[in-house]
Amino acid sequence: MTNEIITHENKEFKNVDYSGKTLRNREFFKCKFISCIFVKSDLRGNSFEECTFQDCNFSMTEIEGTGFRNASFIGSKILGIDFTRCNNFAFSFRFENCIMDYSTFFGTKLKNTHFVKCSLKEADFTESDLSSAVFNDTDLTGTRFLNTILEKADFRNAKNFAIDPEFNKLKKAKFSAFQLEGLLYKYQLIIS
């Protein structure tokens, strides 16, 4: 078996089904993946730089050691992914209209990441750095924030979050006055 790196640049991959397949030793630069299926695929050790994934399905995909630098996910299903196993040196994203429920971001650095119109139900951001992240029209039902850096993060249009200010860094984080319940939930206050 060869360890030769295969490089793809400025290519478009459309309607490709990679379900259950192993793709290794690949570098993708400025590529577009449209309506591709990666369910239970093994993408370990690959690199995706400035790539766009539109209407793709990444449910239960193995991404250990995989680098995502300036990767955009639009309208994609990304269920149960363990982002803690990614290459942390190549780790920057933008998510729009994505379903990302049950994903784990424990201890990851996600500064300036945008989550726009996403579902992040039951996700785990424990000990993550989400400084200046934006959660715009994103559902955070059951999502865990513990010892998370949320300084300058924007939650003004986020929904259904529960964040304990005593166990997270929130300096200059932005919240709507209508969302106080999500910050004060543990005190069982009645806010009207």
Automatic annotation (TrEMBL):
Which Gene3D superfamilies does this one have? E3 ubiquitin-protein ligase SopA
Q: Which SUPFAM superfamilies match?
A: Pentapeptide repeat-like
Instruction: Name the InterPro entries on file.
Output: 5peptide_repeat (IPR001646), PA_immunity-related (IPR052949)
Q: What is this protein called?
A: Pentapeptide repeat-containing protein
